[in-house]
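New here. Invent one.

***
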Amino acid sequence: MSALEQIQFDSDGLIPAIAQDFETGEVLMFAWMNEESLALTIEKQQAVYYSRSRKKLWFKGEESGHTQLIKEIYTDCDNDVILLKVEQVGGIACHTGRKSCFFQKLDNNDWQSVADVLKDPKDIYG
């Protein structure tokens, strides 16, 4: 059985994927993959996700240039979550211009931003 055949995609043919900085361990983002995007990620050693809203493959960094180079790929004990350990090119993973998509921390029942914008999204996406 191939590595892809062992993955437990959900009823929509998707699997959650977490991108983590290979050097620091910081969680950068969460996205979805389908079988094709996971196969391309393995083949190209670059993160490829599936956009549920656009219903198409999404090559991370195709617009921003902030690609994710794969260092290691893991699955959990049930083979239903993917963990990508990546080198984040350009240091920005989030479309908001921050290093990580996880920049809001709950503090006194309110979400507080705890990370600076590294680059204005208008300068990234036009």
About this structure: The CA atoms of residues 96 and 121 lie 6 Å apart. The domain at 4-117 is CATH 3.10.20.810 (Ubiquitin-like (UB roll)). The first strand starts at residue 14 and ends at 21.
